Amino acid sequence: MNKWFYSRIVKAASIIATYVVGVLCLLLVTVVVYYAVRKDGIRYENLENFQDSQAYADALDEQVNGLLSYLHTELESADTRAGESGDQSEGYLVENRFLEGYSNISYQLYDSSGEQILSNNSLTEGQLMQLGNFIILDFGKGTVDTDYVKNMDFQGYPERVTESALAGKRLVIGVDTSFPVRDRLSVARDTFFEIRDSSNIMMTLEAFLYAVLILLYVHLAITAGQREKKDKVILRPEDYIPLEFLLLLGCIGVGLFWVLMYELIENAGVDRFSVLTASMPALVIHTSIVVVYLSIVRRVKAKVEWKHTLLKQFADRIAKASEFKNVVLQTILTFVIFMSVNYICIVYGNLPVKIILAGVDLLMCGQLIRWSLQRMEMYNSINMINRGELDRYHLDITHFRKGSERTLAEAINSIGNSFTKMLDENTRAERMKADLITNVSHDIKTPLTSIINYVDLLKGLKLDNDEAEEYLRVLDEKSQRLKTLAEDLVEASRISSGSVKVELETMDFRELLLQAGGEFEGLLKERELELITDVPEGAVLVKADRRHMWRVVENLFSNAAKYSMPGTRVYAELFPDGDAAVFTLKNISEQPLNIRAEELMERFMRADSSRTTKGNGLGLSIAKDLTVLQGGGFNILLDGDLFKAVIRFPMDEGSSDTALNSEELRENL
Questions:
Q1: pLDDT for 534-556, tens place per residue?
Q2: Do the bridges between strand 569-577 and strand 530-534 make them parallel or antiparallel, or are there none, so unpaired?
Q3: What is the rounded CA–CA span in Å between residue 587 and residue 602?
Q4: Boundaries of CATH 3.30.565.10 in the chain?
Q5: Which of 204-218, 277-291, 518-532 has the lowest mean pLDDT?
Q6: Which site in 20, 270, 520, 609 is 20 to 30 Å from 301, CA atoms measured?
Q7: Alpha carbon distance 596, 585 (integer Å)
Q8: What fold, for 503-668?
Q9: How many helices (H) and strands (E) does the chain have?
Q10: Which residues form a coiled coil (predicted)?
């Protein structure tokens, strides 16, 4: 049953039947309207009483006008009754229709004195008024008295005869509503009932055809786009056309139907030939309606009713305009719409509309204030993220309505969450790395201490084998280097974990540098390096930890001894710079410095990528961290193969005047 219901044969039959029944309905509507409006000038209004219809009013108006013309002619004519000669001419027939026995209208014409002039009956005025309907036209007073008022302007009759022979007369008209005589009124009555009966039959047939048409439309709607009930809806090419165009096509079809109906009613008339001629346009019109209907049904069943519409495209463009890249367009569009609505309401609106407009404007003002507060909230959140206050930046999304503001707030929260997550991961990684370094360093130091002790014991023995002596020397050198590495690892770990204690005291920076230069003088000479020292004559006092300060200076001199090109000079210079003491150490590197200065200060980073020297890549990192812990500044500058380390410490108030003026002396020299 299901397959039969959805079969192509049944669908085709249903479509053909829809076309046939639809065309019949269109043509039948035209015929019904024609008979209701135009048939012999009779207007059918679905009324039971002929006297209540417009058809009666039109026929009565025609008869009264004819009677007035007839009476005017009679009064002016020398021959009182041209029709009494027995002539059957057209003029005689026109006059004869108002004679007694030839018309359902009885009249009595009186002059200004009240004497009867003309009449087509022997009734009294009272009997005349009891026939059915009466009309009394007093052309002298210009008044009308009648018991019938449907769609007739009786007041116009006295005005039209002011200059005729009827002027000053009084006319009493009685209408026999039993219509015993065959005249214009009785013909209109018979046509009225004929149209009413035939129209009832046609409307019954039309109702039946429309019921069949509805059932066919329901069948087409159920089976549209599917071969079985559970099949996916298949769209046809016309379903991808914007829906507005299809609706326009349907409206054009309906408009053409009304044009066709008007042409048949007003010009062609309704007969067999005209109906058959109109069937082809009606078929085309109904086809457009069916195409639009089935396309809408398929779109609704496929749930894409809004996808292929101009309204959807316009809404999408408005939505895109609401994104950040089109904020200007969004603002302009909103402003134009707002100003247009205000202008229309102010110019064309009444007081209630203007009151409503004032309320809407207040709501818009509140909305602008809300947007401003939201933007301020987002601005504060971004500033908190920028300052690193990652525990306070979070925005409550529920405070933001859907749109660009909520999207931006969600993006800010996402950025903050990413920063927080990244910071947590980095902190955890640093902690794990520090723990690893500490644990490994401690694990290395225990066996390393034993190795160093045994090496010292072996050095106390007299070995006769020169090769063994060389092995012992290498073993001693490598164990000492490994010891230094372990100590540096532990110290770097302690610095990064914040467990290094700093005890600041006033110390002489100049004295520390001279001491370091003296200790490293021998090592520098071994590397064929000449140390050039330039320090002030007086003391240079700074607030620092002497032990950590020595480690910093020692690392710098050690690096100079390890990495400087033999036969060059090493410059150590100390001078005041405003309220700070600045120490610089410059040397020419033996290896090319193909690295950035910032990278040199990272842990385990060495200038010689081949690692042929004895360094471990921790010295500069430790020196920088210790300097920062003491409140100083540490920086490295590279210029080709020139290496320059710069340390800056605030000077203590006790520094000698000689040291403070050394910079001026240097400039004078």
A1: 998 888 899 998 888 898 898 89
A2: parallel
A3: 20
A4: 503-668
A5: 277-291
A6: 20
A7: 18
A8: Heat Shock Protein 90 (3.30.565)
A9: 20, 12
A10: 458-495
